[in-house]
Amino acid sequence: MRFLIYSKYGEGAGLGLRLEQEGNTVGLYIKEREYRTVYDGILDKVGIRDIDDETIIVFDSSGMGSEADKLKRSGHKVFGAGKFQDKLENDREFGLEFMQEHGIEIPASRKFESTSDGLDFIVDNRGDYIFKPSGDLPSKLTYKPCDPDDLAHYMEFVDKNYDIESFILQECIEGTALSTEFFCGKWGFVEPATHTIEIKKFMNDNLGPSTGCSANTIWEAERNDIVDKLKKIEDDILDQGYIGPIDLNVMVVDDQFYGLEWTPRFGLDAMPTWLQLTDEDVGQTISDLIDGSVGKISLRSGFASGVRVSIPPFPIEPHNLKVIEREQPNYGVPIRGFEDNESKVYLYEVLKSDGVLYHSAGTGAIGVVSDVADTIASSFNEPYRILEKAKIPDKQYRTDAAKVIGGMHKKVKEMVYA
Questions:
Q1: What is the pLDDT of residue 227?
Q2: Domain annotation for the chain: domains and CATH numbers
């Protein structure tokens, strides 16, 4: 089979490498010029005009829905992405309303289109709120403040430095975050669902900025209320002609849960870790989802866990293209020590020259090291062994993921399966 990985920054290149290792022909198209050295010497780079009707086009992230829908209308086989999915993820108010329409309870939320209106609301309502901007923006702009005054100062900072269309102030509910995901095929959701727990903060003890994901654990979901609620959106997703992953992120509190946001795309770093959980032919699975011939996805028992490794200037956001293009402080940094563990390492911003890996253009995100085992604690053993021995100048990763995620899973298990 032939595949094209259609990417903004090249995050899906590692999936393309997996597909090529399975015997498929794979090309990589990177939309943003500053990132086009990603996977040089590893995957063939192609232009989107080179695509034939038999090539399966895999979109690795959101924000490219218009391109995906146009390709679908032209008769191409497309996996992931769509304008509806972009709106579901990036328009906070729309995503929350979609939850409520399908019986998913949400925290008290209010939309604002001006900072001054939001600041007036904070003065009149001295509660705990989380700031969530809408649009294709750096994830770090989502902010959980220390107190109302801290929130007000942060909103003034955002208003001065960023151009945002609107934002949500959402009631802060303390609990444990949990994601639940299905793959949607031609005829609907395909069993089983999976659960993901991730830690977002960059540093140990949950210090530093949010990174999207610093470490995560995935396992096959048993039947529960969250899975049942997620299945209720199946018909609407099918009506949009979407084929790909769809994820609901919730906050679990005591014996109930609250919907927070949608991820209608590959999760990063959930997708690299998920690849450890399945030993099926992934290319065939994607093809079968598009054709509607897959009945069930076979997953390995136990838990798959992954840890992200990076180098400075990470966690700078990929949106800061001009800064990255100007500075490029770590272009060409050698990446050694993964040679004997390639099956457990999903690489992001790398290139290969004369058989040696180097950091390519980008933020400093090197990759995800993951493994699968019977327990969460043991599933982190191999990733940490590999990371400890990896020879990467200024490597950085969290060392407390097994303990933190283990504690989060214990709480989730008590609450979700009570």
A1: 97
A2: 2-85 (3.40.50.720), 108-171 (3.30.1490.20)
